Amino acid sequence: MKGFVHLRVHSEYSLADGLLRLDELVVACHDKGMPAVALTDLANLFGMVKFYNQAVAAGIKPILGADVFLRSDDSQRPYRAALLCQNLNGYRNLSRLLTRAYSEGQGGGHACLDKDWLEGNTDGLIALSGGQDGDVGQLLIGSHNDEAYAAARAWEALFPGRFYVELQRNGRPWQEEYNARAVGLCRRLKIPLVATHDVRFLTPEDFEAHEIRVCIHEGRTLADPRRARRYTDRQYLTSPAEMAALFSDLPEALDNTVEIARRCTVALRFGDYYLPRFPVPEGASVDDV
Protein backbone atom coordinates (compact mmCIF):
# COMPACT_ATOMS: atom_id res chain seq x y z
CA MET A 1 0.00 0.00 0.00
CA LYS A 2 1.47 3.37 -0.97
CA GLY A 3 0.56 6.97 -1.74
CA PHE A 4 -2.41 8.40 0.11
CA VAL A 5 -5.61 7.06 1.71
CA HIS A 6 -8.68 9.21 2.37
CA LEU A 7 -9.58 8.94 6.06
CA ARG A 8 -12.36 11.56 6.32
CA VAL A 9 -15.21 10.92 3.86
CA HIS A 10 -18.90 11.78 4.34
CA SER A 11 -21.50 10.05 2.19
CA GLU A 12 -25.20 10.70 1.64
CA TYR A 13 -25.73 8.88 4.95
CA SER A 14 -24.46 12.04 6.63
CA LEU A 15 -27.68 13.62 5.31
CA ALA A 16 -27.05 17.39 5.09
CA ASP A 17 -23.31 16.99 5.65
CA GLY A 18 -22.41 14.89 2.61
CA LEU A 19 -23.51 14.09 -0.93
CA LEU A 20 -21.45 11.07 -2.00
CA ARG A 21 -23.27 7.91 -3.03
CA LEU A 22 -21.44 4.83 -1.80
CA ASP A 23 -21.38 3.11 -5.18
CA GLU A 24 -19.87 6.25 -6.74
CA LEU A 25 -17.31 6.47 -3.95
CA VAL A 26 -16.11 2.89 -4.44
CA VAL A 27 -15.95 3.18 -8.24
CA ALA A 28 -14.04 6.47 -8.01
CA CYS A 29 -11.54 5.02 -5.51
CA HIS A 30 -10.98 2.04 -7.80
CA ASP A 31 -10.50 4.29 -10.84
CA LYS A 32 -8.05 6.53 -8.96
CA GLY A 33 -6.00 3.53 -7.85
CA MET A 34 -6.73 3.93 -4.15
CA PRO A 35 -6.05 0.74 -2.16
CA ALA A 36 -8.25 1.73 0.78
CA VAL A 37 -10.73 4.38 1.91
CA ALA A 38 -12.46 5.28 5.17
CA LEU A 39 -16.13 6.08 5.56
CA THR A 40 -16.64 8.50 8.46
CA ASP A 41 -20.23 9.64 8.27
CA LEU A 42 -21.42 12.16 10.80
CA ALA A 43 -22.34 10.49 14.09
CA ASN A 44 -23.57 7.30 12.44
CA LEU A 45 -22.63 3.94 10.94
CA PHE A 46 -25.76 3.62 8.80
CA GLY A 47 -23.91 3.04 5.54
CA MET A 48 -21.35 0.65 7.00
CA VAL A 49 -22.62 -2.69 5.67
CA LYS A 50 -23.29 -1.42 2.14
CA PHE A 51 -19.92 0.34 2.04
CA TYR A 52 -18.06 -2.70 3.40
CA ASN A 53 -19.57 -5.11 0.88
CA GLN A 54 -19.08 -2.82 -2.11
CA ALA A 55 -15.49 -1.95 -1.18
CA VAL A 56 -14.48 -5.59 -0.63
CA ALA A 57 -16.09 -6.58 -3.95
CA ALA A 58 -14.02 -3.89 -5.70
CA GLY A 59 -10.76 -4.98 -4.06
CA ILE A 60 -10.57 -1.88 -1.86
CA LYS A 61 -9.89 -2.10 1.86
CA PRO A 62 -12.82 -0.59 3.78
CA ILE A 63 -11.95 1.43 6.88
CA LEU A 64 -14.88 1.89 9.23
CA GLY A 65 -15.37 4.92 11.41
CA ALA A 66 -17.41 8.01 12.16
CA ASP A 67 -17.06 11.72 12.71
CA VAL A 68 -18.31 12.58 16.18
CA PHE A 69 -19.43 15.69 18.00
CA LEU A 70 -18.01 16.27 21.47
CA ARG A 71 -19.48 18.72 23.93
CA SER A 72 -17.21 21.63 24.70
CA ASP A 73 -16.39 22.58 28.28
CA ASP A 74 -17.88 26.05 27.88
CA SER A 75 -21.17 24.76 26.39
CA GLN A 76 -20.50 26.55 23.09
CA ARG A 77 -20.63 24.91 19.65
CA PRO A 78 -19.49 21.27 19.92
CA TYR A 79 -16.16 20.34 18.45
CA ARG A 80 -15.36 17.48 16.11
CA ALA A 81 -13.12 14.42 15.97
CA ALA A 82 -13.00 11.24 13.90
CA LEU A 83 -12.78 7.73 15.32
CA LEU A 84 -11.55 4.86 13.13
CA CYS A 85 -11.98 1.17 13.97
CA GLN A 86 -8.83 -0.92 14.13
CA ASN A 87 -10.67 -4.17 14.83
CA LEU A 88 -14.00 -5.60 15.95
CA ASN A 89 -13.48 -4.43 19.52
CA GLY A 90 -13.05 -0.88 18.23
CA TYR A 91 -16.23 -1.23 16.16
CA ARG A 92 -18.15 -2.36 19.25
CA ASN A 93 -16.78 0.54 21.30
CA LEU A 94 -17.68 3.05 18.59
CA SER A 95 -21.17 1.58 18.32
CA ARG A 96 -21.67 1.93 22.07
CA LEU A 97 -20.41 5.51 22.05
CA LEU A 98 -22.70 6.54 19.19
CA THR A 99 -25.68 4.86 20.84
CA ARG A 100 -24.98 6.78 24.03
CA ALA A 101 -24.66 10.03 22.06
CA TYR A 102 -28.18 9.58 20.68
CA SER A 103 -29.72 8.39 23.94
CA GLU A 104 -27.99 10.76 26.39
CA GLY A 105 -26.18 13.44 24.40
CA GLN A 106 -28.88 15.18 22.37
CA GLY A 107 -28.67 18.94 22.36
CA GLY A 108 -28.59 21.84 19.94
CA GLY A 109 -29.54 19.59 17.06
CA HIS A 110 -26.52 17.32 17.60
CA ALA A 111 -25.96 13.90 19.13
CA CYS A 112 -22.85 14.63 21.18
CA LEU A 113 -20.38 12.64 23.23
CA ASP A 114 -18.97 13.78 26.54
CA LYS A 115 -15.22 13.35 26.52
CA ASP A 116 -15.53 11.53 29.84
CA TRP A 117 -17.42 8.77 28.04
CA LEU A 118 -14.26 7.88 26.14
CA GLU A 119 -12.57 6.69 29.32
CA GLY A 120 -12.32 2.90 29.12
CA ASN A 121 -13.98 2.81 25.69
CA THR A 122 -11.14 3.62 23.30
CA ASP A 123 -9.57 0.19 22.84
CA GLY A 124 -9.37 -0.67 19.15
CA LEU A 125 -9.98 2.93 18.05
CA ILE A 126 -7.72 5.49 16.38
CA ALA A 127 -8.57 9.15 16.97
CA LEU A 128 -8.06 11.95 14.46
CA SER A 129 -8.08 15.42 15.95
CA GLY A 130 -10.79 16.99 13.78
CA GLY A 131 -8.44 19.55 12.25
CA GLN A 132 -9.46 23.14 12.85
CA ASP A 133 -12.91 21.95 14.00
CA GLY A 134 -11.45 19.93 16.88
CA ASP A 135 -10.75 21.24 20.35
CA VAL A 136 -7.00 21.34 19.70
CA GLY A 137 -7.62 23.20 16.44
CA GLN A 138 -9.98 25.74 17.95
CA LEU A 139 -7.53 26.48 20.75
CA LEU A 140 -4.65 26.89 18.29
CA ILE A 141 -6.67 29.26 16.09
CA GLY A 142 -7.49 31.29 19.20
CA SER A 143 -3.76 31.40 20.10
CA HIS A 144 -4.41 29.50 23.33
CA ASN A 145 -1.26 27.44 22.89
CA ASP A 146 -0.89 26.10 26.43
CA GLU A 147 -4.50 24.92 26.47
CA ALA A 148 -4.07 23.37 23.02
CA TYR A 149 -1.02 21.44 24.18
CA ALA A 150 -2.91 20.23 27.26
CA ALA A 151 -5.84 19.11 25.11
CA ALA A 152 -3.51 17.21 22.78
CA ARG A 153 -1.88 15.44 25.74
CA ALA A 154 -5.35 14.51 27.04
CA TRP A 155 -6.18 12.90 23.69
CA GLU A 156 -2.86 11.03 23.78
CA ALA A 157 -3.70 9.69 27.22
CA LEU A 158 -7.08 8.42 25.98
CA PHE A 159 -5.61 6.97 22.77
CA PRO A 160 -1.99 6.02 23.57
CA GLY A 161 -0.09 5.67 20.31
CA ARG A 162 -3.39 6.09 18.45
CA PHE A 163 -3.91 9.86 18.25
CA TYR A 164 -3.08 11.90 15.13
CA VAL A 165 -3.35 15.63 14.54
CA GLU A 166 -5.06 16.41 11.22
CA LEU A 167 -3.89 18.85 8.59
CA GLN A 168 -6.17 19.92 5.72
CA ARG A 169 -5.70 22.12 2.66
CA ASN A 170 -9.14 22.50 1.14
CA GLY A 171 -9.48 26.28 1.16
CA ARG A 172 -11.30 26.97 4.40
CA PRO A 173 -10.65 30.22 6.33
CA TRP A 174 -7.84 30.18 8.91
CA GLN A 175 -6.56 26.90 7.54
CA GLU A 176 -2.93 27.81 6.91
CA GLU A 177 -2.65 29.58 10.26
CA TYR A 178 -4.00 26.47 11.94
CA ASN A 179 -1.73 24.14 9.95
CA ALA A 180 1.42 26.06 10.85
CA ARG A 181 0.54 26.02 14.55
CA ALA A 182 -0.48 22.34 14.42
CA VAL A 183 2.86 21.38 12.89
CA GLY A 184 4.63 23.27 15.67
CA LEU A 185 2.56 21.49 18.31
CA CYS A 186 3.29 18.08 16.82
CA ARG A 187 7.01 18.76 16.56
CA ARG A 188 7.15 19.85 20.19
CA LEU A 189 4.98 17.04 21.60
CA LYS A 190 6.12 14.35 19.14
CA ILE A 191 2.55 13.62 18.04
CA PRO A 192 2.14 12.31 14.48
CA LEU A 193 0.54 14.42 11.75
CA VAL A 194 -1.91 13.11 9.19
CA ALA A 195 -3.29 14.70 6.02
CA THR A 196 -7.05 14.52 5.47
CA HIS A 197 -9.35 16.27 3.03
CA ASP A 198 -12.79 16.20 4.72
CA VAL A 199 -14.52 14.94 1.56
CA ARG A 200 -18.20 15.82 1.05
CA PHE A 201 -18.86 15.18 -2.67
CA LEU A 202 -17.38 13.43 -5.70
CA THR A 203 -16.33 16.25 -8.05
CA PRO A 204 -16.03 20.06 -7.86
CA GLU A 205 -19.16 20.32 -10.00
CA ASP A 206 -21.16 18.73 -7.16
CA PHE A 207 -20.46 21.62 -4.80
CA GLU A 208 -23.59 23.61 -5.63
CA ALA A 209 -25.83 20.57 -5.20
CA HIS A 210 -24.22 19.97 -1.82
CA GLU A 211 -24.80 23.59 -0.80
CA ILE A 212 -28.45 23.35 -1.86
CA ARG A 213 -28.85 20.30 0.34
CA VAL A 214 -27.28 22.16 3.27
CA CYS A 215 -29.59 25.14 2.68
CA ILE A 216 -32.69 22.94 2.64
CA HIS A 217 -31.64 21.46 5.97
CA GLU A 218 -31.03 24.90 7.49
CA GLY A 219 -34.09 26.60 5.99
CA ARG A 220 -31.90 29.09 4.10
CA THR A 221 -31.39 30.10 0.48
CA LEU A 222 -28.10 30.02 -1.42
CA ALA A 223 -28.03 33.81 -1.62
CA ASP A 224 -28.82 34.36 2.07
CA PRO A 225 -25.96 36.53 3.43
CA ARG A 226 -26.65 35.29 6.96
CA ARG A 227 -25.98 31.62 6.31
CA ALA A 228 -22.67 30.11 7.38
CA ARG A 229 -20.32 29.04 4.59
CA ARG A 230 -18.76 25.96 6.15
CA TYR A 231 -17.69 24.16 2.97
CA THR A 232 -15.61 24.88 -0.13
CA ASP A 233 -15.68 23.56 -3.69
CA ARG A 234 -12.37 21.82 -2.99
CA GLN A 235 -13.89 19.22 -0.67
CA TYR A 236 -14.22 16.67 -3.46
CA LEU A 237 -12.64 13.20 -3.71
CA THR A 238 -9.10 14.22 -4.63
CA SER A 239 -6.67 11.76 -6.19
CA PRO A 240 -3.47 10.59 -4.45
CA ALA A 241 -1.49 12.72 -6.92
CA GLU A 242 -3.47 15.83 -5.97
CA MET A 243 -2.90 15.17 -2.29
CA ALA A 244 0.81 14.57 -2.90
CA ALA A 245 1.00 17.99 -4.55
CA LEU A 246 -0.90 19.66 -1.72
CA PHE A 247 1.37 18.16 0.96
CA SER A 248 4.68 17.97 -0.88
CA ASP A 249 6.28 19.82 2.05
CA LEU A 250 4.94 17.35 4.63
CA PRO A 251 5.37 13.85 3.19
CA GLU A 252 5.04 12.28 6.63
CA ALA A 253 1.43 13.51 6.80
CA LEU A 254 0.72 11.51 3.63
CA ASP A 255 2.69 8.46 4.80
CA ASN A 256 0.67 8.35 8.00
CA THR A 257 -2.58 7.93 6.05
CA VAL A 258 -1.18 4.67 4.72
CA GLU A 259 0.09 3.66 8.14
CA ILE A 260 -3.36 4.23 9.65
CA ALA A 261 -4.97 2.22 6.86
CA ARG A 262 -2.62 -0.66 7.64
CA ARG A 263 -3.58 -0.48 11.31
CA CYS A 264 -7.32 -0.72 10.61
CA THR A 265 -8.68 -4.15 9.71
CA VAL A 266 -12.25 -5.03 10.61
CA ALA A 267 -13.51 -8.35 9.26
CA LEU A 268 -17.31 -8.52 9.31
CA ARG A 269 -19.25 -11.78 9.09
CA PHE A 270 -22.69 -11.97 7.55
CA GLY A 271 -25.34 -14.67 7.57
CA ASP A 272 -24.91 -15.69 11.22
CA TYR A 273 -27.83 -15.02 13.55
CA TYR A 274 -27.35 -14.33 17.24
CA LEU A 275 -30.59 -14.59 19.17
CA PRO A 276 -30.98 -13.21 22.70
CA ARG A 277 -31.08 -15.66 25.58
CA PHE A 278 -34.66 -16.06 26.73
CA PRO A 279 -35.30 -17.29 30.28
CA VAL A 280 -37.60 -20.34 30.49
CA PRO A 281 -39.17 -22.04 33.48
CA GLU A 282 -37.13 -24.74 35.22
CA GLY A 283 -37.55 -28.08 33.50
CA ALA A 284 -38.69 -26.57 30.20
CA SER A 285 -36.83 -25.87 26.95
CA VAL A 286 -37.08 -22.97 24.54
CA ASP A 287 -39.09 -25.17 22.20
CA ASP A 288 -41.72 -25.68 24.94
CA VAL A 289 -42.56 -21.99 25.41
Characterization of this structure:
The chain is α/β, with parallel strands linked by helices. It is 36% helix and 13% strand. It has helices at 22-31, 48-57, 88-104, 135-141, 145-158, 175-189, 207-218, 240-246, 251-263, and strands spanning 36-39, 61-70, 79-85, 106-107, 110-113, 125-128, 163-167, 193-195. Strands 1, 2, 3, 4, 5, 6, 7 and 8 form an eight-stranded mixed beta sheet that branches. Strand 4 (106-107) and strand 5 (110-113) form a beta hairpin. Helix 4 packs antiparallel against helix 5 and helix 4 (135-141) crosses helix 6. The protein is globular and about 70 Å long. The termini are far apart. The mean pLDDT is 93.
Summarize the entry for a quick read:
By secondary structure, this protein is of the alpha/beta class.
List keywords for this structure.
single chain; 289 residues; alpha/beta; eight-stranded mixed β-sheet; 8 strands
Give the helix/strand layout:
Layout lengths: L21 H10 L4 E4 L8 H10 L3 E10 L8 E7 L2 H17 L1 E2 L2 E4 L11 E4 L6 H7 L3 H14 L4 E5 L7 H15 L3 E3 L11 H12 L21 H7 L4 H13 L26
Parallel strand pairs: 1-2, 2-5, 6-7, 7-8
Antiparallel strand pairs: 2-3, 3-6, 4-5
